[in-house]
Amino acid sequence: MEFAVRALLGLTLACAPVAVQAKEVILTCTNLSSGTAWDSKVDLDRHTVDSFPADISDRTISWADPQRIYEFDRRSGEMTMRGPSSTGGYFLYYRCREHN
User: 44, 62, 63, 99: least CB-packed within 10 angstroms?
Assistant: First the structure.
C-alpha cells in the first residue's frame, strides 16, 4: 500500500505544470539612409512586438502601432515601415537582425 501511495505521489509531481518563460528576441533595426538604430522586443509565444499584436511566422513578422505599420522579412533582414501623411503616406526602409 505504501508503495502505491509513493507511486501515485510521484506521478502527481511529475505531471505538475512547469513555469516556462516566453521566448523573446530583440529586433535591432537600422535606417538605411540615416544610420539611426532602434530595438523592438518580439515575444514569439504571445505574438507581440513591443506589446502590440503581431503576425509572426517563420518568414515574416508584421505589426502596427497607432501611427505606423511594420513588415519585417526574417530571411532577408529587410523591414519596411509605412506611415500616413497629408500627401498620401511614406515608406522607410531598415535592415534588421534578430538576437537574444
Answer: 99
Is 56 part of a structural domain of the chain? yes
Q: Which residues span the domain enclosing 32?
A: 20-99
pTM: 0.76
Is residue 81 situated within a structural domain? Answer: yes
Q: How many angstroms separate the CA atoms of 93 and 1, rounded?
A: 69
Number of domains the chain is built from: 1
Per-residue pLDDT in tens (0 to 9) along the chain, 100 residues: 555 545 444 544 455 555 555 599 999 999 999 999 999 999 999 999 999 999 999 999 999 999 999 999 999 999 999 999 999 999 999 999 999 8
Residue 57: inside a domain: yes
* Residue that has been written with the C-alpha cell 505606423 in this structure: 68
